[in-house]
Amino acid sequence: MQAVRDAVGDRIAIVAKMNMDDGVPGGFWLDEAIPVAQWLEADGTVDALEMTAGSSLLNPMYLFKGDVPLDEFAGVMPQPIKAGVKVIGHRLLKSYPYVDGYLLEDSRQVRAAVELPMILLGGITGREVMDTAMADGFGFVAMARALLREPDLVNRLQADPAGRSLCIHCNKCMPTNYTGTRCVLVDRRTTRSATWGKPEGYAPTSAEWDASHPAS
Ligand SMILES: Cc1cc2nc3c(=O)[nH]c(=O)nc-3n(C[C@H](O)[C@H](O)[C@H](O)COP(=O)(O)O)c2cc1C
Ligand code: SF4
Prior knowledge:
- The radius of gyration is 19 Å and the shape is globular.
- By secondary structure, it is α/β, with parallel strands linked by helices.
- Helix 4 runs antiparallel to helix 5.
- The chain contains ten helices and four strands; from the N terminus they run H-E-H-E-H-H-H-H-E-H-E-H-H-H.
- It has a four-stranded parallel beta sheet, covered by helices on one side.
- It has a single domain, classed as Alpha-Beta Barrel (TIM Barrel).
- The longest helix has 14 residues, at 30-43.
- The termini are far apart.
- Iron/sulfur cluster is lined by residues 145, 148-149, 167-173, 183-185.
- Iron/sulfur cluster (SF4) binds at residues 145, 148-149, 167-173, 183-185.
């Protein structure tokens, strides 16, 4: 961590994204994650903590929750891995139900153990879970799929606090990492943000919104 701080000085904030539950037997869990978070705090080089979960190799869906994109994963693999994914992929890609803010309960336990600013991650899709995070002492929220689906979501939520992400947690974006990361529901030929080029806080009209978000 010190090497990173030495490299960036005080120009760039350093965020540690660390696991608190691997989701595999014998894996990392909160009982180890909390002391590690405290070590990072005592070390003094990190500006904020972002807690995550799952194991990219052993249990990737434990981080994402929601639908398992088995066919899409098989589709980007060469043979014979493709055939293997189809046959035994369901054992590696287990299914977990999606709920908004699904890392909140575990992240709260880390929040209670350190003073460092924290970033809540995992299923941040609208103002309700953002407000809960702020009320629980998180300084920030992080969004991945919600912004992949709608890069201008934050502006939309600013204009319409009752709105929520159009992401359906199908997770078909996961295997697009191999071919160009994208939301499969966004038509790259036609879709553009309804608020690009507009002043900050601009609220798109319904017609602009519909034109920039083709029906999925
Ligand atoms: C297509 C895709 C690629 C991702 N790539 C990375 C990555 O390279 N490194 C990483 O730490 N997390 C990666 N993630 C995980 C996200 O950073 C985030 O932890 C996860 O999607 C949960 O947040 P969300 O509910 O806002 O999507 C990726 C997620 C998606 C959907
Ligand atoms: S492909 Fe699009 S809708 Fe599906 S999970 Fe990814 S971002 Fe969300």
